[in-house]
């Protein structure tokens, strides 16, 4: 385990509790709007890092932890890896810098096995970091047009 993983953790809420993926090993490159039913929250497990750029600027970055996709369910059909999340009742323990035991840390992570995730195909605009807006999660039909 990375040395900083034992000292610092963070979580990133995906507002409004949504995330996207572009199918990889198991599908063609189709973006999806992946979310729990209703207005639930997804909090991704992250490791923060602070460093200096070659120009000596202070940079704060975050890595989202990933793991293997579950063997069954909607996520298994889309990609072979999924972001790991932390359930709300585990936030305090996840953020506690005194929690250092690797097995205890692993036990705080949700391995993406929630069977109720919804995956809706969306347009390719989500694949460009310059795009931002609610239209990016508008579902499309199999033919690629918006519903």
Describe it for me?
By secondary structure, the protein is mostly beta strands. It has a single domain, classed as hypothetical protein yedk fold (Alpha-Beta Complex), CATH 3.90.1680. It contains three helices and ten strands. It has helices at residues 74-78, 91-95, 102-107; strands at 10-13, 19-22, 31-35, 43-52, 58-64, 66-68, 81-83, 85-86, 109-110, 118-121. It has a three-stranded antiparallel sheet. Strands 2-3-10 form a three-stranded antiparallel sheet. The longest helix has 6 residues, at 102-107. It starts with 9 loop residues before the first strand and ends in a 26-residue tail after the last strand. 15% of the residues are buried. Mean pLDDT is 76; it is low at 1-7.
What's the CATH class label? Alpha Beta
Following the backbone from N to C, one meets helices and strands in this order, namely EEEEEEHEEHHEE
Helix content: 10-25%
CATH superfamily: SOS response associated peptidase-like
Number of helices: 3
Determine the strand fraction and express it as a percent band: 25-35%
Classify the oligomer: single chain
The N- to C-terminal Cα distance equals 45 Å
Tell how many strands the DSSP assignment holds.
10
Uncertain ranges: 1-7
Average pLDDT: 76
What is the domain total for the residues? 1
| Shape verdict | globular
**Biggest sheet character:** 3 strands, antiparallel
Task: Please list the strands of the largest sheet in the order they lie side by side.
Answer: 1-4-5
> What structural category arises from helix and sheet content?
mainly beta
- How large, in whole angstroms, is the Cα Rg? 17 Å
The CATH architecture can be named as Alpha-Beta Complex
CATH topology grouping: hypothetical protein yedk fold
């Amino acid at each position: 385990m990375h040395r900083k993983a034992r000292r610092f953790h963070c979580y990133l809420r995906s507002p409004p509790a949504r995330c996207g993926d572009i199918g990889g090993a198991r599908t063609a490159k189709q973006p999806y709007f992946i979310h729990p039913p209703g207005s639930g929250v997804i909090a991704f497990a992250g490791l923060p890092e602070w460093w200096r750029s070659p120009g000596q600027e202070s940079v704060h970055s975050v890595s989202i932890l990933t793991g293997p996709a579950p063997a069954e369910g909607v996520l298994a059909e889309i990609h072979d890896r999924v972001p790991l999340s932390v359930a709300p009742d585990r936030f305090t323990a996840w953020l506690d810098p005194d929690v250092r035991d690797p097995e205890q840390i692993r036990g705080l992570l949700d391995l993406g096995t929630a069977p109720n995730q919804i995956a809706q195909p969306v347009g390719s605009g989500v694949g460009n970091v310059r795009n931002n807006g609610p239209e990016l999660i508008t579902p499309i039909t199999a033919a690629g047009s918006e519903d």
